Amino acid sequence: MAQTLYxxxxxxxxxxxxxxxxxxxxxxxxxxxxxxxxxxxxxxxDAAEKIDLDGKTMTPGFIDGHxxxxxxCLFPRFDAPPTGEIDSVEKLVAAIKAYLExxxxxxxNWLVGMGYDNHTFPDGKHPTRYDLxxxxxxxxxxxxxxxxxxxxxxxxxLEICGITKETPNPEGGIYQKDSVTGEPTGxxxxxxxxxxxxxxxxxxxxxxxxxEGVQRSEKxxxxxxxxxxxxxxxxLNTVPLVAGMHKMGLLKIDLYVYPQIEMLGDLADQVPRxxxxxxxxxxxxxxxxxxxxxxxxAKTAWxxxxxxxxxxxxxxxxxxxxxxxxxxxxxxxxxxxxxHGWQIICHAxxxxxxxxxxxxxxxxxxxxxxYDALRPVVIHCQTVREDQLDRMKEIGLLPSFxxxxxxxxxxxxxxxxxxxxxxxxxxxLTSAVKRGMSFTMHQDTPVIHPNxxxxxxxxxxxxxxxxxxxxxxxxVEPMExxxxxxxxxxxxxFEEKSKGSIEPGKMADFVILDKNPLEVPKxxxxxIKVLQTIKKVKWFxxxxxxxxxIIIIKNGSIL
Length: 559
Prior knowledge:
Strands 1, 2, 3, 4, 5, 20, 21, 22 and 23 form a nine-stranded mixed sheet that branches. Strands 7-8-9-11-10 form a five-stranded mixed sheet, with helices on both faces. The radius of gyration is 23 Å and the shape is globular. The longest helix is centred in the middle third of the chain and has 18 residues, at about 350-370. The chain is of the alpha/beta class. It has two domains: about 75-200, Diaminopimelate Epimerase, Chain A, domain 1, CATH 3.10.310.70; about 215-540, Metal-dependent hydrolases (TIM Barrel, Alpha-Beta Barrel), CATH 3.20.20.140.
């Protein structure tokens, strides 16, 4: 088998037994040797390709703790600051109009966009159906909030979905209605958006549309150093498409996916036990997904105490709400997961939702007598309390933090969502470290780009976008942040024996950085660039450009 020798750089192994190395030898798709240049070079054959790192830094390939890779590039962005410029309803409407002029929507298709944030608007209010009607009253339009948990529909979408003043709210969701007229405003929350408007009525994207979007997503993920990605709310009917793309050479990244447990139906037998899950044509069905609440910045997350400033029209004791308020129902799903040996990942932002997860999972363990180490994951885990971390560790729950909130929405949390006391301790990484807990960090893409370097930066610095300190006592050291996106990520998906560190026998998944994140001033971590992403040696992203065989799909044909 072909060999490749990497040398003359800083190699951070994320292996505590051998933290740094001078050289790495790859044979085939696996690491053969790690250590001093003399020792490693002695194991290389004469034909080995030699790669001079030229003083750069090599780390293990980054592992995505939670996102929605397949979904990430399917819909156009209409981003609010600090990542975009849409800071008013007027700018949003103008941007939609401009998009439709350049990209006319044909047939029964909809325009579904994402990225606005009402908190950046002068009055702080969401757009209404009538605002979007100004962009188009004929084209069905849905604009999703940056959180992805609420969105606004124009009148055409409401008509298609049959949403009127008489339409009752679905379980776990809300059709917002005018307090005077009772007419729907166009705003829909949680299940009303995801399961009904988009899930039930939006036309299915064509395979060609999906394939082009997935390719764009993969290129974006690889450009940020990610070699293993997640889709954390996956339609199992999409598995053949993604697997087929791998077979055709269109995809290189490893993708592990989680279908929603309550939507499995007849497809439940496709989900393997956690101990038996493996990649088939680049895709691994890793377990199941469950939602317990919404988003803190959309003020739909379920809290144990009221929001610092409650949304307009809500009572003073408004705390958000549960997606599944029936505890017996929740416990039933957890029992199903335990009995099938499934890893379950649960969306839980608010501490009340986290409490429901802890109590009902422990109850399910007791009622089934099954205490297998299935590594269930609390996704987002933003407002987790110290007492909850203690109990999470006791029953084996892993936290995955959407830690970029400290920067993107830190000011909002301090001033409006949680207030200064609760807000300063969102995503308490240090609390997990002190307990010896394995944790991951994620970006929940498409909420934000899957920029792992920025996540490291925010974990180490804990500054809001305006520069305010936000719980600096919960910051971690750079090495711990690196572990969160490498070996801890591998542990979360039961792959710690094959990924996550640079050790003999593991996959040759690497990232080449222009600077060492362990040595640069902590304030400069965000300036580090991913120069190269290496996936089992075969495929490269180099300076945001794919090196290797590129296959493009156009009009259903391979070019």
